[in-house]
C-alpha cells in the first residue's frame, strides 16, 4: 500500500517538513489508469492539493511505459537518440522527454550525495570543447574533477565564438550569427567562475586551510582568480599547467584529461567528425548530467592500465557506499522534486530548468509547471 511522504505542492509547508506517516493527508478515492491499473488519490489537509500515488513516480503523466534502464544504458554507450527511438519503437521526442526526467534524477542524486564529500584531495578543471546547433557555435563545457578520485563534481556550459580558418562567405555568416546571439552568451569567465564557487564550497566543508586547483593557462581562468577577494585567494591555490606537456598519468591534469576522453568515447554528441552532434544546448547538458551520474556512481574507478577497482569514483571520493545504494535503488522509479533537493549548484539548477540558451533558438525553452516543484 502506497503512503505519500510529503505534499507535492512546493508552496505548501508539508512539502518540506518530516511528516508523521499518516494524518497529514486524507484518501480521496481512486481512478483506473490504462497503463498502471488502480491508482489511489489523496488530498493534503494543509493546502487542499489533490495528488495520487502516480505524482511521485518517475512516470508521472506519461502516455507510454518505457524502460528507463534501457534508455540509460544506450545513452552512456554512445547510441544516438534516433537509434534508441527506433529500437524502442517510439519517436525521438519521447526519448528526449525520458532523458529530461533521468537528467533531473541525476542532478538531484548528485547534489544530495556530493554534500557528503569532505574533500581530501586537490581538484582539476578544464573546458571540454564541442559544439551545438552548428560548427558556427562551438562551446566549452567546464568540468571540475577530483585530482585523485576522478570524481566529477561539476559541469558548466560556456558559449564560444567560432575561430580558425574560414572562407569569405563563412566569415560574413559568422559575424552576422554571432551579433544576433551576443546577448544570450554565457562566457568562459562566467562559467569558470561557477566552478571556482563550487571549489570554495568544497574547501569550506573540508576543514582544510586551502585547496589546489589545477587548470591549463587559459587567460580567463587567471582573470577569475584575480577578481577573487583576498580571503578567497588564500583558500584556493591556482596552479597553471602548460597544455604542451605530455598528457600522461603523471600530468597534473590527468584526471580531467581522462574524463574528457571518456566523454568523447561514450557520448554520441561529442564524438569527433560525427553527424550526431547536439542540436540543443539544454539537451546536450542533460545527457552529460546523466553521464556524470553513470561515471560517478556506477562506473568502477580506474587504478592502472586495464585495471579497475571494485569501488566507484564516488566511493573513492569518500561517499559511503550505503548512501549511494539507497539513492540508486529509487533512481529509475521515484521522482525527485526540485525544491526538495539539497545543495544544488547554480550550474545544476540551470540544467534542471533548461535555462542554457541554444544559439539561433532564442525563445525560452518550454518548461512544464511540474519542473519547478
Ligand atoms: Zn499540501
Count, helices: 12
State the strand order across the main sheet.
Answer: 6-5-4-7-8
Strand content: 15-25%
Q: Count the strands?
A: 10
> Helical percent range?
25-40%
Q: How many domains comprise the coordinates?
A: 2
Low-confidence stretches: none
Q: What is the gist of this entry?
A:
The protein has 373 residues and is an alpha+beta fold.
Describe the fold and architecture.
By secondary structure, the protein is α+β, with helices and mostly antiparallel strands. The chain folds into 2 domains: 13-56, no CATH class; 68-372, no CATH class. 36% of the residues lie in helices and 18% in strands. The chain is built from 12 helices and 10 strands. The protein has helices spanning 68-75, 81-88, 92-114, 168-181, 188-206, 219-226, 230-235, 254-266, 281-297, 313-316, 321-329, 346-352, and strands at 25-33, 37-44, 50-52, 123-131, 138-146, 152-159, 211-215, 236-240, 300-304, 307-312. The strands form 3 sheets. The chain has a 5-stranded mixed sheet, sandwiched between helices. β2 and β3 form a beta hairpin. The longest helix has 23 residues, at 92-114. It starts with 24 loop residues before the first strand and ends in a 21-residue tail after the last helix. The model has no long low-confidence stretch (mean pLDDT 89). The structure holds zinc ion (ZN).
Primary descriptors:
3-stranded antiparallel beta sheet, 2 domains, alpha+beta, 12 helices, binds zinc ion, 5-stranded mixed beta sheet, 36% helix, 373 residues
Amino acid at each position: 500500500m502506497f503512503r505519500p511522504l510529503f505534499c507535492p505542492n512546493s508552496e505548501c509547508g508539508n512539502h518540506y517538513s518530516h511528516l508523521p506517516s499518516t494524518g497529514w493527508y486524507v484518501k480521496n478515492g481512486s481512478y483506473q489508469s490504462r497503463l498502471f491499473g488502480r491508482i489511489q488519490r489523496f488530498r493534503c489537509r494543509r493546502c487542499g492539493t489533490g495528488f495520487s500515488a502516480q505524482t511521485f513516480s518517475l512516470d508521472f503523466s506519461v502516455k507510454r511505459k518505457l524502460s528507463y534502464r534501457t534508455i540509460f544504458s544506450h545513452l552512456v554507450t554512445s547510441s544516438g537518440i534516433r537509434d534508441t527511438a527506433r529500437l524502442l519503437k517510439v519517436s525521438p521526442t519521447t526519448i528526449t522527454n525520458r532523458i529530461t526526467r533521468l537528467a533531473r534524477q541525476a542532478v538531484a542524486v548528485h547534489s544530495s550525495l556530493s554534500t557528503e564529500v569532505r574533500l581530501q584531495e586537490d581538484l582539476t578543471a578544464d573546458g571540454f570543447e564541442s559544439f551545438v546547433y552548428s560548427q558556427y557555435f562551438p562551446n566549452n563545457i567546464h568540468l571540475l574533477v577530483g585530482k585523485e578520485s576522478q570524481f566529477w563534481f561539476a559541469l558548466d556550459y560556456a558559449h564560444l565564438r567560432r575561430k580558425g580558418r574560414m572562407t569569405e562567405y563563412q566569415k560574413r555568416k559568422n559575424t552576422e550569427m554571432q551579433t544576433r546571439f551576443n546577448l544570450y552568451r554565457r562566457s568562459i569567465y562566467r562559467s569558470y567562475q561557477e566552478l571556482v564557487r563550487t571549489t570554495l564550497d568544497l574547501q569550506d566543508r573540508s576543514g582544510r586551510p586551502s585547496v589546489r586547483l589545477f587548470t591549463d593557462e587559459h587567460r580567463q581562468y587567471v582573470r577569475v582568480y584575480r577578481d577573487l577577494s583576498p580571503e578567497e585567494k588564500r583558500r584556493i591555490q591556482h596552479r597553471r599547467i602548460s597544455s604542451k606537456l605530455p598528457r600522461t598519468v603523471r600530468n597534473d591534469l590527468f584526471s580531467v584529461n581522462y574524463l574528457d576522453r571518456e566523454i568523447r568515447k561514450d557520448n554520441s554528441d561529442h564524438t569527433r567528425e560525427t553527424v550526431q552532434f547536439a542540436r540543443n544546448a539544454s539537451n546536450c547538458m542533460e545527457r552529460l548530467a546523466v553521464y556524470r551520474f553513470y561515471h560517478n556512481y556506477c562506473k568502477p574507478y580506474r587504478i592502472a592500465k586495464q585495471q579497475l577497482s571494485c569501488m566507484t569514483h564516488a566511493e573513492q571520493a569518500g561517499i559511503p557506499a550505503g548512501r549511494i545504494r539507497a539513492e540508486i535503488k529509487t533512481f529509475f522509479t521515484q521522482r525527485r522534486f526540485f525544491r526538495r533537493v539539497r545543495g544544488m549548484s547554480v550550474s545544476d539548477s540551470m540544467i534542471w530548468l533548461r535555462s542554457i540558451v541554444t544559439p539561433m533558438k532564442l525563445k525560452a525553452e518550454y518548461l512544464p509547471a511540474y519542473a519547478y516543484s
